[in-house]
Amino acid sequence: MSEDTAEKTFNSFAEFYPYYLEEHSNPVCRALHYVGSLLVLSLLGYSIATSQYQLLWFLPVVGYGFAWVGHFVFEKNKPATFKYPLYSFISDWVMLKDFFMGRFRK
Predict the structure, then answer these.
(1) Domain parsing of the chain, residue ranges
(2) What's the average model confidence in pLDDT over 44-59?
(3) Which of 8, 20, 63, 67 could be disulfide-bonded to 40 (CB atoms 3.0-4.6 Å)?
(4) Mean pLDDT of the region 62-72
(5) pLDDT for residue 104
(6) Nearest to 86 by CA among 19, 13, 1, 33
(7) In angstroms, rounded to a whole number, what is the distance separating the alpha carbons of residues 22 and 11?
(8) Contact in structure between 19 and 8 (CB atoms under 8 Å)
């Protein structure tokens, strides 16, 4: 089995995050992740503030919708969340934090 088709194993989030960033090397893909994550936070805040809890059903659609467009159209790969859902979910928020901290600016 080649390295491309072999299932990678990670013993910690610290091992996984560099892999996650490799899978998000396209800046448009990353930007779509940021948009999706910020919309998730906005929708979450709005639904709680207005007690419109039925809107919470849209959180995965909004969050993953933007991210998956980034992967399939711009990055041309499968989202890491398909194989590593928990680490990927955490990584989305760490990547957003890193963006706001200036990590991805040149």
Answers:
(1) 26-100
(2) 97
(3) 63
(4) 95
(5) 77
(6) 13
(7) 18
(8) yes
